[in-house]
Description:
The structure is a homodimer.
Chain A: H1 11-19, H2 24-33, H3 38-44, H4 50-62, E1 66-68, E2 77-79, H5 81-84, H6 87-98, H7 112-122, H8 125-129, E3 134-140, E4 143-150, E5 153-158, E6 167-171, H9 174-179, H10 185-190, E7 194-198, H11 203-210
Parallel strand pairs in A: 3-6
Antiparallel strand pairs in A: 1-2, 3-4, 4-5, 6-7
Helix pairs in contact in A: 2-7, 6-7
Chain A binds a DNA duplex through helix 3 and helix 4.
Amino acid sequence: MAARDYGQYSGISRAVELIGERWALLIVRDLLVGPRRYGELAAGLPRIPSNILAARLKELQAVGVIRRAPRSRVIVYEVTPYGRELEPVVLALGAWGFKALGEARDEQVITPDSMTMDLRSAFQPRVALELPATSYAARFGDAELLIRVDGSALDVTRGEGPVDFDFAFATGPAIHRLISGELAPQQAIAAHAVEVLHGRPALLDRFVSTFHLAA
Amino acid sequence: MAARDYGQYSGISRAVELIGERWALLIVRDLLVGPRRYGELAAGLPRIPSNILAARLKELQAVGVIRRAPRSRVIVYEVTPYGRELEPVVLALGAWGFKALGEARDEQVITPDSMTMDLRSAFQPRVALELPATSYAARFGDAELLIRVDGSALDVTRGEGPVDFDFAFATGPAIHRLISGELAPQQAIAAHAVEVLHGRPALLDRFVSTFHLAA
DNA sequence: CGGGATCCCTTAGGATACTG
DNA sequence: CAGTATCCTAAGGGATCCCG
């Protein structure tokens, strides 16, 4: 029932016993964005079999990383306070893995929750502090997000309904080369790797200085 | 050959593709302490099947996290610079997992490398900075370590050969309750959970304020 | 002896179908 | 919608063997 153990009395082995099973950390990643229903989690992890999702949800509850939200009419999963402590770890791990992303393959998807966490990984609060507050409406593949930067604060939400923003753009996996600095913003626009939907193209420069992870 | 992928274009999913396979992060943990030979790794991970160790070493090399040390006569594995970037992540994950350690079961071992990383996870440089430089010779189960604290610097080595130290002690899984603050140092000594081998018992207080992780 | 490769068996994971 | 049930495959576990 509990994750298979490694026979070691150590913090790291305990950690991977708790969240090291396949798919587990991706479930945690999405729940760190916000509470999610079973179906929302399944939608955010298109390739997870439903029996595995069900098993992981049980295991993560059993070890106190997630829970069903109390006094909610529908069943909603959320991280516990202990699970919330994984947030900096997951962000750092995401920053590390982001650098190893290569070209996207056709079958790879970008989900709103994964992109939200990637943006939080790449966020440069020091840089943002020096820039005027800015709102971006961005589409990355399927994921539409509203990104609000104000001082050193970042807020990313699913871009639904009528919202106001300073700059709107659409892109795909080219986001990786933008954030890594491999592709210059205006060059990306010229090459149609980024489509500007609204606002001054120069605001894409502000975006890439706000979200940056060097390779 | 390459780790099974999750079909997502995201930093976190890429990270767990690289180091999320069973045993992989424990191998990285031990290599973060220092270069290790195949046999040393096997000794530090008593329950790993040799075919799995061999497979993981190949995979981790293929993705650039570890490598065979160049111009070394014997075969020695070490982390690459990219693998070294995992160090803060592994330490943070170790701190998180450490809090979830319960009572040690009999079959659980404490290895020198795992204990070294746990100590590094629990190290409080701010506190250490206010304290005089101190050397500890410590035995945790099988693992004998020499722990040198000097200002905000920590150095942990395997305690072999003649060395000088201020305080020597031996303990076992009680180390967890000491570091979590659940068990007071002098109480631990009185209850024979910690055996003082050399030096003033009060130095155990200094040790637990230098290495601390609240639950 | 270090550094693996091979064998066989067990268990977890994946695909799909189905149900309260 | 939120999961079970079933079947099948692939990966892990354990022992042994091999080779330079």
